[in-house]
Amino acid sequence: MRQGARKRLAKLLDDAERGGDFSTRIEMPSHALRIEIDGVGELPLPVRAPVARKLITQARQARFGRGEQTLTDTGVRDTWEITPDRIALGGPDWHRTLSDVLDGIRTALGLPPTTVLRAEPHALLVYGKGQFFLPHQDSEKADLMVGTLVVSLPSHHTGGELVVEHAGRSVTHRASRERLTFTAFYADCRHEVRPVTSGYRIALTMNLLAERMRPTDGTSGGPVADLAHCLTEHFAQPAEQRYSYGRPDATPPNRLVYLLDHEYTQRGLGWDRLKGADATRAALLRQAAGQADCEAVLALAEVKETWDAVPPYDRYDYYGDVEHFDDCEDDECEGQCLLDPDGEPGAERRRSGDFSDYELNDLVDDETTLGWWTRPDGTGGEQITLPVSYAEVCATTDNKDLTPYQSEYEGYMGNYGNTLDRWYRRAAVVLWPRQRSFAARAEAGSEEALRELQGHLETGEVEQARTLARSLAPIWKHQGSGPAASGLFASALPVAVGLGEADTATMLLAPFGVETLGERHAPALAAAAARYGRTWAHEAVGSWFGPADTYPGADRAAWIESLPGLCAALRTSAGDGDAVATPLVEGAWRTTGEQLTGLLGTSREQERRASMERLGTTLAHILRAAGPGSADTITTALRGLPDTALECLLPALRTAARRPAAVRDGTPAARAFQSLADHCETRLTADAARPVRVADDWSLTPAGTCRSRCDLCLDLDAFLTSRTRRLMEWPLAKDRRRHIHSRIDLAGLPVSHTTRRQGRPYTLVLAKTNAVFSRERATRARAETDLAWLREKWPRPRL
Description:
Layout: H1 3-15, E1 23-28, E2 34-37, E3 41-42, H2 49-57, E4 60-61, E5 64-66, E6 69-71, E7 77-78, E8 80-82, E9 87-90, H3 94-109, E10 115-127, E11 132-136, E12 145-153, E13 157-159, E14 162-166, E15 169-173, E16 180-186, E17 190-193, E18 196-199, E19 201-212, H4 224-234, E20 256-259, H5 277-291, E21 294-310, E22 323-325, E23 337-339, E24 350-352, E25 359-373, E26 382-388, E27 393-395, E28 406-410, E29 419-433, H6 437-442, H7 447-458, H8 462-470, H9 486-499, H10 502-509, H11 522-532, H12 534-545, H13 555-561, H14 563-571, H15 578-600, H16 605-625, H17 628-639, H18 646-657, H19 668-688, H20 711-721, E30 727-731, H21 734-747, E31 751-756, E32 763-768, H22 771-793
Parallel strand pairs: 20-27
Antiparallel strand pairs: 1-16, 2-3, 2-9, 4-8, 5-6, 7-11, 8-10, 10-19, 11-17, 12-16, 12-19, 13-18, 14-15, 14-17, 20-29, 21-25, 21-29, 22-23, 24-28, 25-26, 28-29, 30-32, 31-32
């Protein structure tokens, strides 16, 4: 669909009859409601000040939600609340009045006529003088919740206006002094209660729940035929490139993503619970999809835009929003230091906050990712990860006309900067041609697509399944790792086995990370290895570990902890589970061994020991999972490492000793741990037999030469290795002093280094500290303790 056609579709939907507004207000006589509060009794309406003060004695400080937290902060929300269990609503006309109000709200908000609204009490709020609630969004507290109803009780007060905004528009609602004021708005609308300036504002808040009572008749006015024509053109024309640069036209797009105006949760997203104009536009698109032979689903999208932007004129600095500091700690620094709040020299600070008053110039880039969608039949839904291209997205309301949930501004940096990143959460109608349905869903990592393949296999349509599976090769990309991808991997495994094609099976399984694998997958993994052979299994496992230089990430340690259980399940499953278990152990050891080798070169003992101890726990899990061959290989490699490796081996032995049932006699793990225990005992015994450092021996291990092999490092090592020299006064320029500072700190040496700021150049004073002796005493005491523990927990077997 060319940009002109995409604009046509958005314009057609904009011209369609709007289904209502985002907020509405209705007044009713006060005698329609009889309200009683525990501890107060029936409230006379209008509510006078003495009654309001009595309500406050029965109330608590109101709370509010922020993410997963429930907080109390009077700087954000300052009001009193009474919970719904202490509120009783009634009166001879109340239910009829509320029903009439809800019917009016449904019409005003543009909800379908087949929808029945229900109001559920949430809290009674009392605002006194100066109290307020800052701009916020209400959370959807139930699957059926679409909005909030505020019933303002009549009272004599000023201020306390309820301000509701959405898509760049704002409406201010004031409560009546004599009548009930019903104000309704969609839950995703930002709103605030301005400070009360006199008297008391009393309001009953209620959750608006939308219930579908009967199906629609499928009729709806609007330009359905024109929309269907736009869809047909979109899926027939080559996809438009944002920046073509003379490149040939691309293939037609796989989908159309039409962004809706309101925000929804997974629980609240449904064709029957769309809000305002969203409901009208989605219904038109759904009918147009039927005419164009397309499928339509609802989805949740994460949108990021990057704008070229500048602050308002009165806050703009040509060099960006920076801070200057004169109080540099280096006395030799000339001029001012330019620092950001984290102390990074020469860097501009990156700031988060509200940048609604910044001037937006050009849109630099945008990204849209679908994270969840419903099934084609409109029921249920599933988690997905699908970035969509520029040529696949359109909207009637631009993102910049909505309120972002997060913004970050990057100030001017010389050759880049003055950019404003804005993030939005939007719902979307996603459409694709029915004949491309399988590929469109599969590209998102959809379990539904895999279930379709499995269905073909179960009905004997193997060739059909193979043809569809092969079509995934260009689009079956990285599917993630860890528990989030576990279900998708479980669906892919039986399909990979059933296809009977090794290359296609590899393609289906390769995009997952090794952290996805768990005991639940063991039977299918063993079956796959048996069907395709050990060479295939070894290559498949290698693909799950990723390239050799890939950083394992934080999830790897948690996965390795589960590795013994996974390997045990593999070896007891029908098929050839050992063909998968062995390369899994080898891959885990390869990564761990590389980390261990890197840590051996770390001179800072405290830093190294903490990392070594964590790695020892990981090593214990790998040895417990290892078979005979792998266990021997790992043990041989570990026994050949320098003595520093004991900082890892001893924690591994302690981890194993805490779970003796997991290291049974005669198992490969038991033999490996005993071999390592004997090795550690031999090394520690030799260390304990070494002579104690004499009182006048101040020699230290050399720091070693730097990469440039400068003369400074040679002189430093001569001082360090000297038995008698404790002090060294060294006239050096600033850069040379810094070099020596870094060499001493990097090696973690017991040497103090200070600068005597007299003369030119200043003098660097190095002094060996008493830690030369105390460290050695601590090391010897630790070795003796470790040796005693080893002899108790891992005694050498009697010959």
